[in-house]
Specification:
Elements (H helix, E strand, L loop, with lengths): L1 H9 L5 H21 L9 E6 L22 H15 L17 H7 L5 E2 L10 E7 L2 H22 L5 E5 L3 E6 L6 E7 L16 E7 L9 H5 L7 E7 L1 H7 L4 H8 L11 H12 L13 H17 L3 E8 L5 E9 L2 H14 L7 E3 H6 L12 H11 L6 E2 H11 L7 H8 L3 E6 L24 E6 L16 H4 L3 H4 L5 H16 L3 H118 L4 H106 L5
Parallel strand pairs: 1-3, 1-7, 2-4, 3-6, 7-8, 9-11
Antiparallel strand pairs: 4-5, 5-6, 8-10, 9-10, 12-14, 13-14
Helix pairs in contact: 2-3, 2-11, 4-5, 7-10, 8-9, 13-15
Length: about 750
């Protein structure tokens, strides 16, 4: 019961590592479905996607419908990607997901939607292009998942294809949805059961079927190796598994049998042992026979994940594998995502999605420590450094000749943590570390552009490229010898530990024979080739110098012509400006001569007018002075004799007042301060008196209130007693009446004989 509650509570919140895992799953499905369901492919594959631990389909308690696909659960992501691909196949714009959320449960939300496009009677067939199988053991999650799938179908059809219809068949433990109207061919099966009891569909063994099994359990004991093996019977069956390496590292000594079943180790053939010896035995096998003390504690989970990857490849018979590491907020390993496949195209598409989610350049891992504590932003782009990729390619193929481009791409995809791009090869060609020979198809005669590697022309067969790497610091005697990738040559660690493979012994014998017979043939060939390459490079450099000189001469000629033309134009402009200046001077001189005559006449007239005005002003001023003197004489005659003396006395009084005011200012300031202090004392005394009076009043009011309350209580008690007595009296009267009535009725009844 505790595990079921934990499974149920897990979907109420979301984490960063869970979000990155779903982004990786979404990007891989978009590439996977597009490659298997492409229109131009003559043979049509049937793609089956199995989600063995599906869950409820949506996260969070508010049951929202966001626009981002990665915010949903893995089953709804698979359904959305399938619907979006068949929608885009009709050359329609991308689907815009997301609707208004509701706080209702999925069941109540489904009841409120119209189901006019649903068909109840549906014929169940396996004839479809895309089949989605979702397995869930929890009953509540199973119910919510079925409701969420149907809500998504209803809303998608209503917004984009209102004329299409879908079918539903429901039983106790299974629900079946079919959406086969044009352009869709999708079946959805939801099963209420466990991964151990579920039997894989028989179509997996067919040649025209491609499948992906996604295993994301809550724990490590739910995916034993015997059950995982059943889902990879053919070469086109891929598996993506969430391996809880940190839990396995802790539970080896507590539960060795569960860990042995996870790795597929048979303990029945081994004799019975104690718990401690059994746990040590399993621990040694898991860690490639390394002693636990020799492996650091921080690297034990990583070593366990690598060995589980090798066990998976051996048990399922697959060639290629990829791992992605997830870390907690304290930078400890949480789990590893492991992918196994038999096809190089699966490696390419899965590595693209893993590299998008990785936050490290030289590996595939993501840590919540750098995002939550260090504040690093989530980068969903390519993290590869082209210079590092170029150095790894050059160190591996150094000194080899006529290496095909496809061989280099396979090495980068399989044996390195990088993505294959042609930009690093262009940098190597610029640095002179490689020389390229390309073979064009018969139809096209286009030349190759330097530092580029176009593979598919518009018409004809693809271009073939052969690269020769420079032999600086080469230690191998035979650079022409071809080596396959380490993923194909080297077996698993468990098989090759402590033993040498037969292929290496055969190669050593061949090398010894060549040394005995030929001696220095290979070194002579290398010297000849180096001389030829050096001569070719020197010729190329000379040709480049000659072309540069020609270009410079041509550029100098063009520059001289431009200079001459510019000088000619400048001279013409100077002559034109000089002519314009001469014309302007002549015009200005003529104007000056005419203006001088006019000004002389004007000045003479103005001077005469000014003289006249001055004379008039003088006469007017004299007349005004005479009038003012006459008025003053009249006023002096009218004034009283003692007026001047009174004015002098008033002036003296004003002076005395100003002096007295200066002396009295100081006295007034002291008086004001003393008045203020006396007023404050009076105010404080008044406040004290008021407070005393208020306290006396409050005490008197309290006494009155107490007496009033006691009197009210006594009166209330009297009233209550009177009411009780009245009730008792009424009850007794009723009882007496009932007794009288019953006695009367008994008297009236006749006696039976």
């Amino acid at each position: 019961m505790a595990n079921k509650k934990m499974d149920r509570d897990f979907f109420k919140k979301d984490t960063i590592h869970g979000l990155m895992k779903r982004i990786m799953y979404k990007k891989y499905l978009q590439a996977y479905i597009a490659k298997t369901q492409y229109e131009k492919v003559k043979y049509a594959y049937k793609t089956i996607i199995i989600d063995a631990f599906a869950g409820a389909g949506r996260y969070g308690p508010q049951y929202q419908w966001p626009a981002e696909i990665e915010k949903y659960g893995s089953p709804l992501i698979a359904l959305m990607v399938a619907l979006g691909f068949s929608h885009r196949k009709q050359k329609m714009p991308n689907v815009i997901w997301g609707w208004e959320g509701s706080c209702k449960n999925p069941e109540t939300e489904l009841r409120g939607l119209s189901k006019s496009n649903r068909m109840e009677s549906v014929r169940i067939d396996d004839s479809c292009d895309i089949e989605l199988i979702f397995i869930e053991s929890n009953n509540e999650n199973y119910k919510e998942l079925t409701c969420n799938v149907e809500i998504l179908l209803i809303r998608f059809i209503a917004s984009y294809y209102p004329s299409c219809r879908y079918g539903r068949v429901k039983s106790d433990d299974k629900t079946y949805f079919s959406f086969t109207d044009h352009p869709f061919s999708i079946h959805v099966r939801i099963i209420n059961g466990s991964f151990e009891t579920f039997e894989p569909p028989p179509d997996l063994e067919k040649s025209g079927v491609v499948s992906l099994t996604f295993l994301d359990p809550f724990g490590y004991t739910k995916t034993p190796m015997r059950n995982v093996q059943r889902f990879s019977p053919g070469p086109r069956n891929d598996i993506l598994i969430n391996f809880m390496s940190s839990y396995v590292n802790r539970q080896v000594k507590r539960n060795p049998k569960g860990v042995a079943a996870l790795f597929g180790i048979d303990l029945e053939q081994i004799a019975e042992r104690d718990k401690e010896s059994l746990s040590d035995f399993v621990d040694n096998i898991i860690r490639s026979y390394e002693k636990p003390n020799e492996v650091l504690p921080l690297k034990r989970a990583k070593v366990i994940a690598k060995n589980y990857e090798q066990f998976l490849k051996k048990k399922t018979g697959t060639k290629f594998s990829l791992t992605f590491e997830m870390r907690r907020e304290n930078n400890d390993i949480l789990y590893h995502i492991i992918y196994i496949t038999n096809h190089i195209e699966g490696v390419k598409s899965m590595k693209e999605s893993m590299n998008r989610c990785s936050q490290v350049e030289d590996g595939m891992e993501m840590s919540e420590f750098y995002i939550l504590r260090k504040g690093q932003k989530i980068n969903l782009g390519n993290m590869d450094n082209p210079e590092k990729v170029a150095n790894t390619v050059y160190e591996h193929f150094k000194g080899r000749e006529e290496v095909k481009l496809c061989r280099i791409s396979n090495f980068v995809w399989i044996d390195t943590p990088y993505l294959f791009r042609t930009k690093p090869l262009g940098k190597l060609e610029k640095g002179g570390k490689i020389s390229v020979r390309h073979v064009c198809p018969s139809n096209s005669q286009r030349k190759r552009r330097r530092y580029t590697f176009p593979e598919k022309p518009k018409e004809g067969n693809p271009v073939m490229y052969y690269l020769t790497f420079s032999s600086e610091n080469v230690t191998s005697d035979h650079p022409e010898q071809s080596f396959s990738s380490t993923a194909d040559v080297l077996p698993s660690k468990v098989e090759t530990s402590g033993k040498s493979s037969k292929g290496n012994v055969v190669k050593k014998k061949k090398v010894m024979k060549r040394k005995e017979n030929g001696g220095t043939c290979a070194s002579v060939k290398m010297n000849v080739k180096e001389k030829f390459e050096n001569d070719a490079r020197s010729i190329e450099k000379k040709v480049e110098k000659i072309t540069d000189l020609k270009k410079r001469e041509e550029s100098d000629k063009i520059a001289n012509k431009k200079i001459e033309s510019v000088q000619f134009i400048e001279n013409r402009e100077k002559e034109r400006k000089q002519k314009m200046k001469l014309k302007r001077r002549e015009k200005s001189e003529k104007r000056k001569n005419g203006k001088e005559k006019l000004t002389s006449d004007r000045t003479s007239k103005e001077n005469e007018i000014k003289k006249k005005m001055k004379l008039k002003r003088r006469d007017e001023s004299k007349e005004c002075d005479i009038e003012n003197k006459e008025i003053e004489g009249k006023l002096t005659s009218k004034r009283k004799p003692g007026e001047k003396e009174t004015k002098k006395k008033a002036k003296l009084k004003r002076r005395d007042k100003s002096k007295r005011f200066d002396i009295g200012e100081v006295e007034t300031e002291e008086k004001v301060k003393s008045d203020r202090k006396s007023k404050e004392k009076e105010r404080k005394m008044k406040m004290k008196l008021k407070r005393r009076e208020g306290s006396h009043k409050c005490a008197s009011l309290k006494v009155e209130n107490k007496t009033g309350l006691e009197s009210a209580r006594k009166s209330n008690n009297k009233e209550v007693k009177e009411k009780r007595n009245i009730k008792k009296f009424s009850v007794e009267r009723k009882r007496k009446k009932e007794i009288d009535i019953s006695s009367q009725t008994n008297q009236k009844k006749p006696k039976l004989s």
